Each structure stands twice: as C-alpha cells, then as structure tokens.
Amino acid sequence: MIRKAVVAGQFYPAQAHELRSDVEGYIEGARIPADVAGAVCRGLIVPHAGYVYSGPVAGGGYACLASLDTSAHTTVVVLAPSHHVWFKGAALPEADVFQTPLGDINVPDAAKLLTKGSSVFTSGEAHAMEHAVEVQLPFLQVSLKDFDIIPLVLGEVDTESLAQELLALNLSHMLIVASSDLSHYDPYDMAVEHDHTTIGHILKGEGDKLGGDDACGFMPIRTILAMAHVCGWKSRLVDYRNSGDTAGDKSAVVGYASIGFWEDRNGHE
Predict the structure, then answer these.
(1) Which family does the record claim for this protein (predicted)?
(2) What is the DSSP letter of 77?
(3) How confident is the model at residue 268 (pLDDT cuts 50, 70, 90)?
(4) 63: in domain
C-alpha cells in the first residue's frame, strides 16, 4: 500500500526539480557546530512547518547528516506528533511505501517487530493527513542515498518504553528524527525567551520539563532524549529561528530549532 503525499504544493513544492533545488539550498546554507567534527550524527530534532517558514532551520539539521556513511543502508525512524487524531501509543502506518515528488521510500519489515511491544500499533488514520512525517521525507531523500523509514505518529505514549523498544531493534545504521516545532503564536520577544528555555531543557536532557505549550512534538523529543541518555549521545543546537525571522510577521510567531545528537566514530560520547 502506498501513502501518497498530501501536503505537496502546500507545505513544499509539488514539482520535483523545484523541491530538490529548495532543499539543497537549505542544506548548503547551513552551518554545523565546529565541536562535533569527526563525530557521527545519530539523531535530529527538526521543525515541520511549511518550508518557507522552517525550511532554512530544518536544512541546518539535515546538513549534519554529512557525517554519515552514505554508502551504508540507513533506517530512519521518524517520530512525529499527531495533529489530527487523538490516541494512546505510537502508530505505524498501514502503508509500506511513502511517496513524495522525489520518489518512493520503503517501510522495512523490521517496523512490524515494534508491534510486539507495548507501545506501537498500526493505524492508517493516524498517518493519512499527518504532515509532520511527510515534510521530513524530501530532506532525507536529498541527504541520504540508501535508506528506508520507520514512521511513527505519537499520541500519548510512555516515551521511555518506546525508546527501549526502538533500541531493541538493534539496527546497525539507525537515525532518529524527532519532528517538532516549538512555541506557537507568541509575540516575537516572548517566543524567543520561551523557546530558549525549551532548548535549554532539551540540551540538558530534561524531557520531563517539556509539554505541549513548549513544543507540539514534545513526545517525539522526550523519546529521542531517552534514547540519547541510554546511548550517550551528545546534543548541540544547530540553528534557532522563528517565523518572524524567516517570513517577517513578528506579531505572532512559531519557533523552530534544529538540534543534533552525536556519538564519536568509536561509539563513545
């Protein structure tokens, strides 16, 4: 079953050549923190708004994937909040292929192993209209040569348990992408203050201090923080802006951050 793109032409260009050009531009314009040179990126927190708003910030996150061995097959776990359906747990799609204007991406059979745990179930409804997974896919298609995805839309879930279940897959080349915006519709100065407090909690690994007012994807963020704690990944802020910086209107803005998680090439912090 194919899950077709539903926000192409709305959140990002529907034409493949324009989409690829835009994504390449966002990535090429990014700066990566100097102190992670030689380390391997294992995870990202990146925004999921329309590209005109959050594309430059997302590009900063995906620029970090230059540290990966692109000749190796990578399984990307995309963790996204649910914007349309309320449920408990984490939802896999019924589809085994996700489609964007840049082509098809497979969902591996390994994804089904997650349903044997306590957190994950299958729901086509949870994925049908969800943009928070879809907007990440063109960035992955431009950044990686050989990959598949395990897309999970998160409702109310025990993030510690979900983190353990994901790590138990024991995939040799796994990347975690937590899809989340930050504060919503505060005035510019208030948003900057709020978001920097949120970013501080993330960089300290304080997922328990995050809620829906801080980040719509607080459940995905809590999950990647739990995995980072177990694996010893170090986090760094790559970029922070809000829609007032990218689109101009500062009266009510949405915050965006890209944060990377790294381990060194020997697997140590």
Answers:
(1) Belongs to the MEMO1 family.
(2) E
(3) very low
(4) yes
